[in-house]
Batch of 2 targets.
Target 1
Amino acid sequence: MLSAQLLQQIDTELAKYPADQRRSAIMGALRIAQTELGYLAPETIEYVAQYVGIPAIAAYEVATFYNMYDLKPVGKYKLTVCTNLPCALRGGVDAGEYLKQKLGIDYGETTADGKFTLVEGECMGACGDAPVMLLNNHTMCSYMDAEAIDKKLAELE
């Protein structure tokens, strides 16, 4: 199900923990699986759980709790906009509304061309840079007013 290269990366995660604490590697293992497959289908979660050596339900608990894991296909670019209070007070809600209008989709939807998925996110720990947007779970974009959003979307085109 996963390439040998990814299994080796998961092995590296597993090596970080004592043998009796393999469960601690599940977050990293799921992240690695998602990078190759684009999202975590139920059979992927079960496969990773088995590989790590934990019950599938324990992996499901992690995958369904954290919003960095995608349980259905997402666009090439996943845009997560923080709308928690600090960001909301500094334009986070407006940034989300602008993206909805600009992309023609709502939160939880993907553009027809499969390029963008828009997600409403919780605090990303960068309140001083509000409003913030997370690109593909890895790149923090700060001060995302309409002008900054237009610039970022142009870069992604």
Target 2
Amino acid sequence: MTIDTINLDHYGQPPLPWERARAALEGFAAAPDKPSYLSTGDPDGRPHTTGIGAFWGDGGIYFTSGLSTRKSRNLAANPFCTIAIPLSGIDLVLEGTAAVVTDPERLEHIAATARAGGWPAEVTGDALTAPFSAPSAGPPPWHLYFVTLESAVGVATEPPDGATRWRFH
């Protein structure tokens, strides 16, 4: 993968390395004290943002959603989205394309990862079920989405300071 780095800092700081952002994402799983927010576009162009239970894996972001939710309907019409995540030392906005994961082996792998993290997810058909999920996920079953990153913006919240956009090819 090729990464283009664009320095957004207007105060003379060097660009932030993608490795700093990627290291902050390692092991990330949303929780009440570690929020993440998904933004999609309604068919009429209005933005829609909601908190989601997201986690980092396989070089992108996973999250679940019932197909009848507004976010899933928006993604069916236009799969481009952003996910905002405040992390230790850096705030990130990840931009990419979301797709429903239907591969049984990948679904089982993610369900096992979720169980290890405390969410008792099980694969049912081409989706996940559990006794509970994030309120914004809608009723079960929940489809698993994977966001393939196209770009990201990072703003440092502790030294070394800076702001950077990364584009992934």
